[in-house]
Design a protein that fits this description.
Largest sheet: none
Number of helices: 14
């Protein structure tokens, strides 16, 4: 339900100039009933000047009279044909000043990971212009060397649901054209939820490539060659026998 302009000031005027119940006023202006009662007691909205909803084309006198005669009647905002369609956003998306410096990074991310998106879709998604997108596509942007691709959802420039919507639209268009897509392209053209549910092929890290057949277990079929046992005499090349007899002969007179 639409609320009136200057809700608190409108409540002040209705409390001062009508006999409408606090509950009816609270429902109309979107406040709590105790807040409206506080306005009547002078504890809330002290010094706030009342805003006449009749003079400002928000209520009719007949509507106020009906509400005063029937405590269960709910006030309805007067229909204003000139204000119809104001809820719909017009023009490019507004980007806060604090995030505008990150917008080229988000465009670079979209161009890199979703090249199927048109310039118009990207411009509508993050609130930019087509010449800026074209300069980033052609890498002629003045700051292209310092730019880093960053997800626009992480930057707060758009919602994940909005990004998924245009990606799904691009996927439907790609499928209608009948083009053959690779696995990477197919993964890019699905929503985040669908991408997380897909089974990814196991990949061997580059650091251990070539070691697929490596095993620490010993092969029982192959017998290791036994090294010959070397005794102390052969190791030191000591002479065998006769040594003691020669020494004894030399000592005899």
């Amino acid at each position: 339900m639409a609320k009136p302009l200057m809700a608190k000031a409108t409540a002040v005027w209705l409390v001062d100039n009508t006999t409408i119940s606090f509950k009816q006023i609270a429902d109309f202006v979107g406040m709590h009933e105790l807040e409206v009662q506080g306005i009547a007691d002078g504890d809330v909205a002290a010094g706030v000047k009342g805003f006449d909803p009749i003079a400002n084309n928000q209520l009719t006198q007949e509507e106020i009279d009906t509400a005063q005669n029937n405590p269960l009647h709910k006030l309805k905002l007067k229909f204003n044909p000139a204000a119809s369609g104001e809820e719909k956003r017009r023009g490019p998306r507004y980007t806060p000043l604090s995030k505008r410096q990150d917008r080229p990074n988000s465009i670079l991310w979209l161009v890199k990971f979703h090249p199927e998106l048109s310039d118009g879709q990207i411009a509508k998604l993050v609130g930019t212009t087509k010449p800026t997108i074209q300069s980033i596509r052609e890498r002629t942007h003045w700051n292209i060397s310092n730019m880093q691709p960053i997800d626009p959802v992480a930057l707060g420039l758009c919602k994940q649901s909005e990004l998924d919507a245009i990606v799904q639209k691009a996927a439907a268009k790609k499928a209608a054209e009948g083009g053959v897509m690779s696995d990477d392209e197919r993964r890019k053209l699905v929503s985040t939820e669908q991408s997380l549910e897909m089974d990814s092929a196991p990949k061997i890290p580059t650091a251990i490539e070539g070691l697929e057949t490596f095993s620490l277990s010993e092969d029982t079929n192959e017998k290791e060659e036994e090294e010959p046992i070397v005794d102390a005499d052969s190791f030191f090349n000591l002479p065998k026998g006769g040594g003691d007899e020669e020494d004894e002969d030399d000592l005899r007179p």
